[in-house]
Design goal:
The chain contains nine helices and no strands. The chain is mainly alpha-helical. It has helices at residues 2-29, 34-49, 52-55, 60-86, 93-98, 109-124, 128-139, 144-151, 155-171. It has two domains: 2-86, Rna Polymerase Sigma Factor, Chain: A, CATH 1.10.1740; 93-171, Arc Repressor Mutant, subunit A (Orthogonal Bundle), CATH 1.10.10.
Length: 172
């Protein structure tokens, strides 16, 4: 029992020693909000419990490298999760086109209606997968790599989808 208490106190001291580093990575590098940085800190602390016995024996540089790797991995996981939550898959592109945000304020209103109708007809011909790619690229302004990672596709497959989408819209 005293060995567990000693190990826990050593881990607690170690966490206090590296606390500012564990917080600085999510806040300054990933630009996370403080509450997300708190979540990252807690998750890193839980992962450090796994290495509690060997952390005390490690050299400072090796210990810092391990903490850096764990913190970075947790931050990337949070970033990926956050980017997936931001996208709303149930959002319908046709509803967005019905909004006034599509029309430019100085354009001819009659022409805007014609363009909007043509675009709606072209988008209606797209498959569900192509609509999602269209939404992410042209409405959410996401990059090809981000779209590929979100949809578990290769960047080449996303480019092919975009090429096919453009062809269909131009043909309509």
């Amino acid at each position: 029992m005293t060995n567990d208490t000693t190990s826990f106190k050593a881990l607690e001291a170690l966490i206090q020693e590296y606390k500012s580093y564990i917080y600085s990575l999510p806040v300054h590098v990933f630009r996370f909000a403080p509450e997300i940085a708190d979540d990252v800190f807690q998750e890193v602390c839980l992962k450090l419990v796994r290495y509690a016995d060997s952390l005390g024996d490690m050299a400072h540089a090796r210990r810092l490298a391990l903490i850096r790797k764990i913190t970075y991995t947790v931050c990337v996981d949070h970033y990926r999760f956050a980017s997936r939550v931001v996208f709303m898959p149930d959002e319908n592109i046709l509803d967005i086109l019905d909004s006034d945000a599509v029309a430019t304020p100085h354009a001819d209103p009659q022409r805007n209606l014609i363009i909007k109708d043509m675009l709606q007809a072209a988008i209606a011909c797209l498959s569900e997968s192509q609509r999602r790619v269209f939404m992410m690229r042209f409405v959410k302004d996401m990059g090809i790599r981000d779209i590929a990672s979100f949809l578990n596709k290769t960047p080449l497959a996303v480019r092919q989808d975009l090429y096919r989408i453009r062809r269909r819209i131009q043909a309509a």
